[in-house]
Amino acid sequence: MRRTSSTRARVSSPIDERFAHLLARYGEIRSATEALCVDLSAEDCALQSMPDASPVKWHLAHTSWFFETFVLEQGLDGYRHFDPSFRFLYNSYYVGIGERHARPERGLISRPALDDVHAYRRHVDKSIARWSRTTNPTERDLETFELGLHHEQQHQELILTDLKHLLSRNPLGPAYAPAPESSGTEPGPLRWIAFPAGVREIGHGADGFSFDNERPRHRVYVNPFQLASRLVTNREYLAFIDDGGYERPRLWLSDGWDARASQQWTAPLYWQRAGGRWRVFTLHGIRELDPDEPVCHVSYYEADAYARWAGARLATEPEWETAAAGLPVAGNLVESKRFHPATGGSGDGLQQMYGDVWEWTNSAYLGYPGYRPAGGAVGEYNGKFMVNQMVLRGGSCATPRSHIRATYRNFFYPWARWQFMGIRLAQDA
Amino acid sequence: MRRTSSTRARVSSPIDERFAHLLARYGEIRSATEALCVDLSAEDCALQSMPDASPVKWHLAHTSWFFETFVLEQGLDGYRHFDPSFRFLYNSYYVGIGERHARPERGLISRPALDDVHAYRRHVDKSIARWSRTTNPTERDLETFELGLHHEQQHQELILTDLKHLLSRNPLGPAYAPAPESSGTEPGPLRWIAFPAGVREIGHGADGFSFDNERPRHRVYVNPFQLASRLVTNREYLAFIDDGGYERPRLWLSDGWDARASQQWTAPLYWQRAGGRWRVFTLHGIRELDPDEPVCHVSYYEADAYARWAGARLATEPEWETAAAGLPVAGNLVESKRFHPATGGSGDGLQQMYGDVWEWTNSAYLGYPGYRPAGGAVGEYNGKFMVNQMVLRGGSCATPRSHIRATYRNFFYPWARWQFMGIRLAQDA
Amino acid sequence: MRRTSSTRARVSSPIDERFAHLLARYGEIRSATEALCVDLSAEDCALQSMPDASPVKWHLAHTSWFFETFVLEQGLDGYRHFDPSFRFLYNSYYVGIGERHARPERGLISRPALDDVHAYRRHVDKSIARWSRTTNPTERDLETFELGLHHEQQHQELILTDLKHLLSRNPLGPAYAPAPESSGTEPGPLRWIAFPAGVREIGHGADGFSFDNERPRHRVYVNPFQLASRLVTNREYLAFIDDGGYERPRLWLSDGWDARASQQWTAPLYWQRAGGRWRVFTLHGIRELDPDEPVCHVSYYEADAYARWAGARLATEPEWETAAAGLPVAGNLVESKRFHPATGGSGDGLQQMYGDVWEWTNSAYLGYPGYRPAGGAVGEYNGKFMVNQMVLRGGSCATPRSHIRATYRNFFYPWARWQFMGIRLAQDA
Amino acid sequence: MRRTSSTRARVSSPIDERFAHLLARYGEIRSATEALCVDLSAEDCALQSMPDASPVKWHLAHTSWFFETFVLEQGLDGYRHFDPSFRFLYNSYYVGIGERHARPERGLISRPALDDVHAYRRHVDKSIARWSRTTNPTERDLETFELGLHHEQQHQELILTDLKHLLSRNPLGPAYAPAPESSGTEPGPLRWIAFPAGVREIGHGADGFSFDNERPRHRVYVNPFQLASRLVTNREYLAFIDDGGYERPRLWLSDGWDARASQQWTAPLYWQRAGGRWRVFTLHGIRELDPDEPVCHVSYYEADAYARWAGARLATEPEWETAAAGLPVAGNLVESKRFHPATGGSGDGLQQMYGDVWEWTNSAYLGYPGYRPAGGAVGEYNGKFMVNQMVLRGGSCATPRSHIRATYRNFFYPWARWQFMGIRLAQDA
Asked: Which chains form contacts with chain A, at 3 or more CB pairs under 8 Å?
């Protein structure tokens, strides 16, 4: 059932205020996406460097497809598609919507051109504006619209990580952005912060946006534990490498040891050894490795092996979340425009919980007790990936500040390395 | 430090009694292994049908290797190896012991012959007898010895499942054993048994044998849930198939959907459709599918999809274990010599919790809070597999009765199907 | 030793005249390459659709690299590279020159941009002009320079065939160029032209350019044979399909039958069946299949199977070459700007020997008796590919007229289909 | 139409004499096959070490299947199959006969047991005897029967080479047979034997048995050439290795260089380097490399690279055959029971042309002018493999003397190494 209201004279209501707020956010987020790409050529945006990564152009289109498919098709009377073939071309994995273009082939599309995709974005933006003036949104409408905003923010992060992977495959080592001037503060000594045992609640409660996989808020029993005050640094990780970390099978999970061998890992992704020195590819090009930075671009297998070598372990989801519960969302997030983890972590209490690098947890990505995926095709958003992946927490230097929170559950296969992924240690009390 | 006691005059002590008990068990378990193979030819025992499965001959040798390596090498003065090359040839995955023969190449070994492997078993048996007369065992010695017993029981199950896979690849469909005469009882209607919420303890406590992965006993918070009174039957699973279960992506996890496609799954392993009827390969050869038997040889992906289709889910480990906690270990286990799941499940309360089929849980195989692997090379037994696998509970028709218990955690990759694996449903209260 | 002649006062000599001619050709051929790309976007030119195909941008650069490496580096004093990294980036397979960028990764290069590659071409053109004014070329210099011209013409053909493959992978089916207006003439009935037995000479003699693989001219004994007067048409090939050609193993070479199965071939490349009609992707987009056109984009395996079905065979190299020896080089070559095979073949004598489609022969690509590869790194041009490939003759609708001749030996793996490849039948007399 | 003659009173005729001769040969050849296997266990005979190789048991059965399918089914009234399932199980690749068991799965068959296969052989032998007493064979019948004899001889060679591969994969390095006592004679210096140009005839003429691929005898023009007087030795090949032969791409065909890399070749198959010395696995177990023996177990790629390094090339088929035309069939063939190439090659004229190792030629395996495959399913014997393979000539130490001749064309993929394959050099005159 489509709702129309060609002439409206609404009084301000909570739902109106929230709608107005979301519409403002829409403008900001859509602009932020494009701002990330402003210095990229059409060629930069068209290429795909591996099946897991998508071309930037695809991200620009798919985020628009999301609003078109879940908001405009349902909610805007007489909506005219910019191009009917995009329904197929820019569907990521929603089988409820229909057939879609194969993911590994996203890099075979030279047409539509980047300019056409920008025109598509304009078309969707104008249509959203028209929809906003004519709709009388229900709570569910607002939820879907808000989901689109957070969805686009997720793709902002992927634009940066996928592009980084692409540029890294270019032997010329090109830069996305100039390097920042300041380099952060000294990392202090690693301290252990203790937390007591007990029944706790985790997961997202009633108010504010969350993805369905953060719900419902539920009880867990947490055994006593300690969390490291800061992230593991490159200097610490180098000690692991120099101690034969990549050659000692007893430090590794069996699957990790095999992945290491078949992928020929001897260091984190983007590290290069030349002339006895470690260099690292970053979004600012290739430069010397800074030993004080948080180690980044490690797989779960490497994070786990490092933790075992260090006599510790990774935190579980409930541990991380209960520890983070009261902390402000602040840190080296995408707004810092560093696009790289920063040195730091020397203050009191837990440091670097948000930003810099996603922190691998020792928890498999599964549904919470009582988990129910959202209805309709958006129900495919999270639930169908709940196997074989591990949860990461806390966001990274590519995550928008308004996108992250204590209950946020990111998830990747344990061999993934191309996101900004790092390590925080934990141990039993 | 080796302990010797050429002349002994011991008074009976608890440790002596336990040792005497374990030695008696040793004889029984070693004989039981060989009894499983008594009708098999050398050819039956030499072949390997896939990298995940091993030749029967390898199992016969490897279980002996375990006692040789972890008991005799350490504990028997002047122990002479039957053949020094076996140290390499029959090591499964213990990197702490040294290099080993590649698993996928176990089927390339025509020599040593089966007769030589039987002679190896005799050599180890005699050496264990000699060791038993000369050792003054510590608690740790008994633990390792007992681990060897349970290890051999695990391989008894694998002998049956690996052999079943091999025979299934033979287009002639040969039988391992004649079919049993009786076919069990009618499965009754599926009922839901409710369990309340609360803090519970799971895992193995102080007394009796357990694997390290069952420890430590620890607290968990369990939300209210219900468990199906019996296993899912072939009849019920056929309704899922007939309802398009294998063609509806919305019922599947994404990885499961892809596995289904790449493996071309349209039914459980060993099912064959011909002339509009379903037939099934069993250890008794090929026969008609019995709709009342528990469904078997399904992957986690299929179990999960079936549960979703049925409007339910799989149980978690804490749910299964707290439900099973008070039940006697009884059911269609290997001692029934059926070598196949039996019809049944009609009584009051929870039925078929032990035996018939391993029950896939919705829990990833991870270490419990406070988990510590055993010391030395036996520490590789369980811990290094704690990623990418799902836990199964309850044992199967190929499991020895003395091997299974409520806290027992079996684990396989979610795509595995060649074990006797089935489905019990759960749901939120 | 570099030769310099800052002040020159040369009298006209045969070598001078030839040099002047080649310099004129240089200008024409370089322009022709760019004319092929004039309507392509930077995105069109950057993508790579399979390891066998290269991005158009790569072709534009590599052909310039060839002149830079083999002419300018050796012959122009003080030559300054446009970008030293291009020596690595645009080397195709000349190990004598040094390391090179991996072929399957040519599609990962967004920078240098297409504009930069065009600037590179200008730089090389200017340097060639400077070289032409300052060099006093030896015979060997002219040979290498001329080789560069023919090399660039080969890549003109690859630009069209690689781009065609890329555009075909785009579900939108975009066109490279508008379709031609006229459609050619009717194909007449297939007639057999007889040739007598005897000792013949094939291969390239002394005068004029040839690749090293066409030399030396040598004697062969040719048994009596007959050649079809024209190419096999789509109509004829459809009869093969309709007669179960792709389902009858006895018609196929064993390797071909396996390739057919693993590649799921049921028709030539670029054919699509929808609604009971065959459509075909062309450089003009997707359109109805014209039954009168020569069949195109078939592998050697398909050509061989078709010939067997038709009760005939493919010609050998000596047969094709002795038959073609006296014919003028004329036909539907790239200058017709059709970019697709044309209907025709109805006249007297052998028709369609040049142009339209490369004709698979039944000869493996091997060195002629007395074959010697050229000296230096250009010796890698042809010789190292002399195994596992089959020879094709006669050029195609993508071949420049000045590039093809009776002795020309093209070669591809028997499974290749993305070139304009077709079928002419032969039979024993 | 079956022919029967329950009562016969035949006068002796040429066809009768030939039949009698063939029946005697049948007995000898069948016994020779079994003699090769007499010391092998059922386990030795059941295993398959790679898709290209088959279990010995399979060879024993398949050679019987050939007589059953092509002789007994057609020619013996009331023939009763030993087991109807064998028609499927032991068909190698004859699609004209029907479906067949997949080649890579021949090692999954523990039942029928080796004893059953021997009983199958007895059944076929008795049936052939019965057929011989009741048939009135046509010329075509005798041809097919004789083809079965040569077919079985081919599999005698494969029994040895496939078994060698299997035993080589066993880390214990078991022996098939004890080593011979004498080691042959010294290889003399390599001399060049010159042959003049001219029109020659090659291929098999009218009399005596040949495979269809040796026919028809036809004219070729042979350019002047020289052939090495003997095979290349291990000493000579070691000089190639020590000169960096496996690390210099300019010596290799491009496909060969890639195969070398992906297969990690650094020496011939079965060579092992330990402690600065080369050892080699043979059918007598592992021993020191004898530098005077002919080099063996090299691919075409290695043979070609060696020849290029040595400033020579491999011979073509016409060259080899015209050179061999007048020579007696003598050498280190299977009857010597060495099962390994022998040192030698020091006499006058061409040495070692027969036996020791198959000699790679520079000719692709294609049909001769006028080639016609035999009719019926046996027409699949040779013709369908005429692509992608290279021809080898002269037989090896595993070839029966009565099986080889000057016109014999063996063929393998250029990467194959597990046959007894070696190198003879040639050069232009």
From this structure: B, C
